[in-house]
């Protein structure tokens, strides 16, 4: 998968915010850092930049104590705490940094990333949007925009199936759109690993880590999945490649990519591509990427909503990401390969053929038909058709939360198009409707997010009265 890099933040630890206008009270000058600790500060920054902040925690804590109002000290301390695996303490330091300078470029970037890697995608999206509003020409703006799009997609999927955190598996999430698995007749699945010699960043230990990842999945499948290495690509079903950049991948944010093919419910081939130039790479982190991509190749097409799972959407970076299978990863794989044919057939796109939460009388049958056709239109990008069909489903069955939630999602997407088209009247109308139907769909936090977007939009239009009103609604439903 992917990671938003730390290079911008570390540079700012030393030099202050890039591209800032006029004097910045947080830029490092001799007056900011007393001479008595300046060398210690630079040493700590260098260790944190190298991924060794965990060894400098006491040193950085002392620095923060001496200069408590220096925002970059708190950012460095937060990063070092993350590197030590102390995420809650890291978030607390980020709160301090945010209180000192809430719209600081590196504060917004680091806070957004912290929300992202902890699975708080709604908060990550709001923070990153604020970043993009204030710093549209930042070096990492393109990557952040791509990350926001990916997170929006994940959040919308969770609206259809509630996220799985707190359960012992994430089957509903990973099989939401596509449900495929390998046939028992394919076991052991033949795997071919291409030679990466000549690919920038390639090293001899990388294929060994990839092989270890295959073994780990097989050993934790309850005997349902096995692999064998083959000597020619023509005899394999899973083919592994190496790449030094993302030019051949679907996203510039990817650290690896898996393209699987097959019939409606059966996998017949998978192509795994692994990036050899992962920023701040380590053997543990690379193995985590391998495990993640193999999970996709085994049929786990969707992501988990729990950052502790190897199949979580985003990389944690700096070696704090999951690098071994969680109990939920193992349970989910076991379920995929032990479900009966009839039960497995209920997952994936086939689930749009019926809505399992309803009692089927004539009215709800008609409502369900509209909902399922609307879901197909939504998934294929036909928003106008989806809007019409979801509206009819809600008219026929107004008390069904799932119908209201999908109508809200569609209004949200339409509002985004209005924003791109610079149609402020339609944007405000459709985003308000999104908030309304999120509430009818029992998704108050999604409604709060929509109202927050409206408040930010109103401020950009210099309409403080509307901004205050939307802020009140956002706070009301956020709590």
Any overview of this molecule?
The structure is a single chain. With 479 residues, this protein is α/β, with parallel strands linked by helices. The protein folds into three domains: 7-160, Tetratricopeptide repeat domain (Serine Threonine Protein Phosphatase 5, Tetratricopeptide repeat); 171-343, Collagenase (Catalytic Domain), CATH 3.40.390.10; 354-478, Tetratricopeptide repeat domain (Serine Threonine Protein Phosphatase 5, Tetratricopeptide repeat). The chain has helices at 7-15, 35-49, 57-66, 71-83, 87-100, 105-117, 121-134, 141-160, 171-174, 205-219, 283-297, 327-336, 341-344, 362-379, 383-396, 401-420, 424-440, 444-460, 464-478, and strands at residues 189-193, 227-229, 238-243, 256-262, 267-275. A five-stranded mixed sheet has the order 2-1-3-5-4, covered by helices on one side. Helix 2 runs parallel beside helix 4 and helix 3 (57-66) packs antiparallel against helix 4. The radius of gyration is 24 Å and the shape is flat. The two termini are 32 Å apart.
């Amino acid at each position: 998968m992917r990671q938003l890099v730390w290079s911008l933040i570390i540079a700012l630890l030393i030099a202050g915010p890039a591209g800032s206008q006029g004097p910045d009270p947080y830029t490092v000058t001799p007056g900011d850092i007393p001479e008595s600790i300046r060398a210690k500060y630079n040493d700590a920054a260098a260790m944190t930049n190298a991924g060794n902040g965990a060894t400098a925690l006491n040193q950085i804590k002392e620095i923060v104590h001496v200069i408590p109002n220096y925002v970059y000290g708190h950012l460095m301390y937060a990063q070092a705490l993350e590197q030590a695996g102390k995420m809650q303490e890291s978030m607390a330091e980020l709160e301090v940094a945010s209180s000192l300078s809430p719209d600081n470029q590196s504060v917004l970037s680091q806070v957004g990333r912290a929300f992202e890697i902890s699975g708080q995608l709604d908060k990550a999206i709001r923070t990153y949007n604020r970043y993009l509003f204030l710093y549209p020409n930042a070096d990492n703006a393109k990557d952040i925009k791509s990350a926001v799009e990916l997170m929006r997609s994940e959040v919308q999927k969770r609206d259809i199936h509630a996220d799985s955190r707190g359960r012992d598996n994430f089957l509903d999430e990973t099989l939401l759109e596509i449900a495929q698995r390998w046939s028992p007749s394919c076991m052991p699945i033949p795997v071919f690993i291409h030679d990466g010699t000549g690919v920038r960043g390639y090293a001899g230990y990388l294929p060994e880590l990839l092989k270890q990842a295959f073994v780990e999945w097989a050993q934790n499948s309850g005997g349902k999945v096995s692999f064998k290495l083959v000597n020619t690509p023509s005899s394999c079903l899973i083919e592994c490649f190496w790449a030094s950049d993302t030019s051949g991948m679907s996203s510039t944010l990817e650290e690896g990519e898996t393209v699987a093919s097959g019939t409606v419910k059966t996998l017949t081939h998978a192509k795994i591509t692994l990036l050899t130039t992962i920023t701040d790479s380590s053997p543990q982190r690379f193995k985590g990427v391998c495990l993640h991509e193999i999970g996709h190749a085994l049929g786990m097409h969707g992501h988990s909503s729990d950052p502790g799972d190897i199949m979580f959407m985003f990389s944690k970076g700096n070696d704090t990401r999951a690098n071994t299978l969680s109990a939920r990863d193992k349970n989910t794989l076991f379920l995929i390969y032990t479900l009966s044919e009839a039960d497995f057939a209920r997952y994936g796109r086939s689930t749009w053929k019926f809505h399992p939460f309803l009692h089927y009388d004539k009215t709800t049958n008609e409502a369900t038909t509209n909902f399922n056709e609307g879901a197909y239109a939504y998934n294929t990008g036909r928003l106008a058709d989806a809007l019409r069909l979801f509206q009819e489903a809600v008219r026929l069955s107004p008390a069904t939360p799932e119908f209201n939630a999908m109508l809200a999602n569609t209004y949200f997407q339409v509002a985004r198009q209005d924003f791109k088209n610079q149609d402020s009247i339609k944007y405000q109308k459709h985003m308000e409707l999104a908030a309304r139907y999120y509430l009818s769909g029992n998704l108050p936090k999604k409604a709060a997010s929509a109202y927050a977007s409206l408040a930010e939009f109103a401020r950009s239009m210099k309409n403080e009265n509307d901004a205050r009103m939307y802020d009140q609604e956002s706070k009301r439903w956020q709590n």
